Each structure stands twice: as structure tokens, then as C-alpha cells.
Amino acid sequence: MSYLVEPFEKAKTFILEQARPLEAALFTYHFEDGDATDVLTELVRYQNEDGGFGHALEPDFRYTGSSVLATSVALQTLRQLGASAAEPLVQGAMRYLRENLDESRPSWYLIPAFPEDVPAAPWWHGYADRVPDGFLANPTVEITGYLWEYAALAPEDVRRELTEVSLAWLEQAEELDMFMLPCYLRLFQTPSLPPEVKERLEGKLRELLVTAVVTDPAAWTEYSFMPLHAANSPDSPFAGMFEAAIQANLDYLIQSQMDDGSWLPPWSWGDFFADTWAQARQEWAGILTLHNLHALRNFGRL
């Protein structure tokens, strides 16, 4: 199935007119040869004086202060731009992460304690009471990738310790949930990751993805780990594991696009901070629409 011009133009219009300025700048950068500086100008609005990021950069968590959650989202964006260790936003983010590592685990916590009246998805309220003991793969594994990517800004002993802990934790795992898997995949995608680390990661990820990826299209209307989450490009070493499922997943994306050109999140806050959820839902629509356009283009559907 080919992708028609009109749906792409609708998606473009939605992003440029209804998404956040950050997603609009990212769209222009990726699809219209825009300037990376415009993206950085938008991203800096979410950074705090401590170097970390907040201010609802991750729309489900609207705390203005810094969190590892929001800082990891910022670093995902900076990776898209190929930002170097000389970029001030990168330096601030890495400083924040260095100062907030719990060396006793060793791990990072996704979010700090925050006031109950701060609008956020219900699963973030009471998060601190549900944090398990020991190593926290989410988000520590993903952050470990940035320690390699920006090695000049990270202590070598910490980087190597966290790499080994991340590998050991993965190798003993019988399964990974849909929140831990993206962390390991982002670590795997780190350009400067040592080949021996990448080899260990790939072998175990192949084993776990077989059962983790949801290949039944009927289940994709719910929040699930879809084939395109495992391989969002034909260049992924995992793409060959799910060839037919990926094509079906691309068809599903095309069929599920809204009339206004957007894709909506398959989750909800319910009645929790309902007015704020309406805003967060719109912001997620911009993020997901941009993400889906990337996947469609990567597989030749644009």
C-alpha cells in the first residue's frame, strides 16, 4: 500500500498549526531541510538552571522542575540533531544527570517528589512509593547510552560500571516490559557504543523481542509494543525478524490517521486533571504524528 500525498499534507498542517513549536521545528528540520538552531531555540525553553529539563517536555508529567524523565526526552531530541558534547544544552543535561545519580543502586529515578496539585498522569502520582529496590533499568539503561555518546562529559568509571550492570541485568531477564525495552534499544542505538557491548545487547534483545512485540493488529488500538517500536527503520538489525508484521503495522498507521492529519495517544488520564489532559493529549498528538511520519518515510510509505 502506498501512502498518498494528501494524508501527508494533512499531517504537516496539523504539526505546523496545532502541535507545539518544538515539534513544528523538528518537522521542518527533518522534512524540509530546516535549521537545527530553530529546534535548539525551542528546546532550551524547557531547560532549568540546574541543567535538567522539565516544564512538561514529557506531556504526561507537567512539573516545572527538572526530572530525569524530561531530561532523557531532551537527550533523545539532541541525538536526532547530532548535537555534540560542546552544545550547551547537552552539557547542562549531563551535569544534571551526574549530580542526580543514586550511586548506591546505582540508578537514576525517573522523577523527583512533586506536589500533589501538580497536573500529571495518574501513574506519576505516588511514583516514589512504588519504586522497587535495586537497579532501575528504566531510565538508567537509556542514560548509560548518553554516557557513551557524550563520554567527555561523563566519568569513565561510572560509565563502565553502569554498562556492566545494564548488561548483567538484561542477560538474566526472562522478559522485559514495554517501558524497559525502549531503554535497551536506545542504548543499543548509541553510535559510540563499543562493539562488544553492542554484540551482547543484540543477542539477548533478539531473544526477548520475539515474545515482547505484539504482532496482532487487533491489539494495536491499545497501548502496546508494536513491531515499529522494535524496528522503526529497515536499517534496524531487528527489522528482518518482523517483516510481515512491520508492513501490517505501517498499513495500520495509515488507516488510523485522524481526519485532521494527526494520530492520537492510545492512553488517557481518565477524569484525573481532565482539563490538563486535553492539553497533554494535543501535545502527544503532535509528538506521535511526527514519530509516525518518520516511520512511514523510513519504510518508503511517503
- Tell how many strands the DSSP assignment holds: 0
Number of helices: 13
Number of domains: 2
Biggest pleated-sheet summary? none
Helix-strand pattern, N to C? HHHHHHHHHHHHH
Strand content: under 5%
Which overall shape is indicated by the principal axes computed on the Cα atoms?
Answer: globular
Oligomer: single chain
Portion in helices? 40-55%
| Alpha carbon gap, first and last residue | 11 Å
Could you walk me through the main structural features you see in this protein, from its secondary elements to its overall organization?
It is a single chain. The chain has helices at 5-18, 21-31, 36-43, 68-81, 88-99, 127-130, 137-149, 156-171, 180-188, 195-212, 227-230, 243-256, 274-298. It is mainly α. Helix 1 runs antiparallel to helix 2 (21-31) and helix 7 (137-149) runs parallel beside helix 9 (180-188). The N and C termini lie close together (11 Å).
